[in-house]
């Protein structure tokens, strides 16, 4: 056994540095063995300190080289994957992000087996699919569902300009809540199947059960009724940015007349709120807050006669239309998503029962929302808060 302080100062510093930087736990453990050995600990004391057997400690203390960290790696674990050179791994990481079509293949995605086969042609190194899979996992790759993207349909310049305008509105709403309010208005999603991302229009809760993940015993699967039922509850809603106040209206259908009526109801609620603060009703038009409504480009939102009526009857309201394919800028999407999650896997007997629960969630404070969650635009997550 080496004498105490057998390491010189430089060797000791190098080992201490390696102990902090080494990612592999087993190598860190072996470095620690040498440092403890240098402090005069016996192999038995080192084994007791680390919590392993003497047979584990002894070989490394005898055959390990403190000046060569590679000697502290377990050569017995060098499997076939070691045939993968650095060039092979770098090429793998490059190809896995490429479209298979670029290499003349008809399939649309890479699997580990396909990558192994292709790289064998490129490099002459033959690995199995499982070996390629292990390499990718070590490089922090995961095998998950691809996401739908609307980026090719979005106008990036319009989105950027609108985001800047929205940020300015939100800043003013925070600094001068008595002068300006920002409301996100939306609807048009179907709880039973999917969210239809088209801000301020009607939102439908269907009687069909929506499936979500749930805890169940391994090997079994929770079952929900997949039968379609007739019956639907339509909702239009608005969300105020500053205090997250919700105003949601049940509606029979979504059209320009309904939209106009619901806007008038929202306008009146804000007006009454302002009057209750001690202001005079006749002063609301001139001194009341400007109401910015963020909404989508549904055709009945932009009907000329509706816009003219809003400008004439509701002068405090200003409609700001989202860029196309930009539901991720509409904060009320989180309300619909949270409501959808809340009633997932539940079966409703009739429309009345569904409407009662929806009303409790949206209008009676029954829905707790995690506002820190990100809004999703077909897979592209953006947090406007």
Automatic annotation (TrEMBL):
UniProt signal peptide: none
UniProt domain Tc1-like transposase DDE: residue ranges: 202-354
Domain of life from the UniProt record: Bacteria
A single GO molecular function term of this UniProt record: nucleic acid binding
InterPro entries to which the protein is assigned, alphabetical: Homeodomain-like_sf (IPR009057), RNaseH_sf (IPR036397), Tc1-like_DDE_dom (IPR038717), Transpos_IS630-like (IPR047655), TrpR-like_sf (IPR038116), Winged_HTH_dom (IPR025959)
All residue ranges annotated as the Winged helix-turn helix domain in the record: 106-165
Full protein name: IS630 family transposase
Organism: Microcystis aeruginosa KW
Organism lineage: Bacteria, Bacillati, Cyanobacteriota, Cyanophyceae, Oscillatoriophycideae
């Amino acid at each position: 056994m080496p004498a105490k302080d057998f390491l010189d100062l430089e060797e000791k510093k190098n080992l201490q540095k390696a102990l902090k930087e080494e990612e592999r736990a087993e190598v860190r453990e072996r470095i620690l063995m040498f440092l403890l050995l240098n402090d005069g600990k016996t192999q038995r004391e080192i084994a007791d300190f680390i919590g392993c057997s003497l047979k584990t400690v002894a070989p490394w203390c005898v055959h390990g080289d403190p000046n060569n960290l590679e000697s502290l790696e377990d050569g017995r674990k060098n499997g076939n994957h070691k045939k993968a050179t650095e060039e092979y791994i770098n090429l793998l990481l490059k190809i896995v992000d490429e479209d298979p079509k670029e290499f003349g293949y008809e399939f649309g995605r890479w699997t580990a087996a396909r990558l192994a086969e292709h790289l064998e042609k490129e490099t002459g190194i033959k690995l199995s699919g499982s070996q390629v899979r292990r390499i990718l996992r070590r490089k922090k790759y995961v095998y998950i569902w691809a996401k739908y993207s609307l980026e090719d349909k979005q106008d990036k310049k319009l989105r950027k300009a609108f985001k800047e305008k929205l940020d300015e509105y939100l800043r003013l709403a925070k600094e001068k809540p008595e002068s300006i309010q920002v409301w996100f208005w939306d609807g048009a999603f179907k709880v039973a199947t999917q969210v239809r991302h088209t801000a301020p229009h009607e939102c439908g809760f269907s009687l069909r059960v929506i499936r979500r993940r749930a805890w169940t015993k391994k090997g079994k699967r929770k079952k929900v009724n997949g039968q379609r039922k007739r019956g639907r509850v339509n909702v239009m809603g608005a969300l105020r940015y500053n205090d997250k106040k919700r105003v949601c209206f049940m509606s029979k259908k979504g059209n320009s007349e309904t939209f106009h009526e619901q806007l008038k109801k929202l306008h009146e609620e804000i007006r009454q709120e302002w009057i209750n603060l001690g202001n005079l009703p006749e002063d609301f038009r001139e001194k009341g807050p400007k109401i910015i409504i963020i909404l989508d480009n549904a055709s009945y939102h932009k009907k000329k006669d509706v816009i003219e009526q809003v400008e004439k009857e509701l002068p405090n309201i200003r409609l700001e239309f989202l860029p196309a394919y930009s539901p991720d800028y509409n904060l009320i999407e989180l309300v619909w998503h949270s409501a959808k999650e809340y009633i997932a896997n539940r079966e409703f007997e009739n429309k009345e029962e569904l409407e009662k629960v929806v009303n409790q969630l949206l209008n009676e404070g029954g829905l707790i929302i995690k506002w820190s969650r990100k809004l999703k635009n077909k897979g592209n997550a953006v947090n406007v808060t």
